[in-house]
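Morning run. Coffee first, then this:
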Amino acid sequence: MKSVYDIQQLLKKYGTFIYTGSRLGDLQMFEMELDELHGLGFIEQELYVKAKLILKKEITSLKK
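And here it is:
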């Protein structure tokens, strides 16, 4: 996993399609969905951490 696109594809595997019209809003929704999938045990810890780091980095760059 290397990009936000990869995270979007991962979420699509679980039937989650997110488009809010706001890049920041989309990223925040991705985070919530990842938290839910991880909490339910659908995704492994390593994948979860990588995805969260990618999202945090992207969110930080958007807020600048």
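The domain at 4-63 is CATH 1.10.287.760 (Helix Hairpins). Good start to the day.
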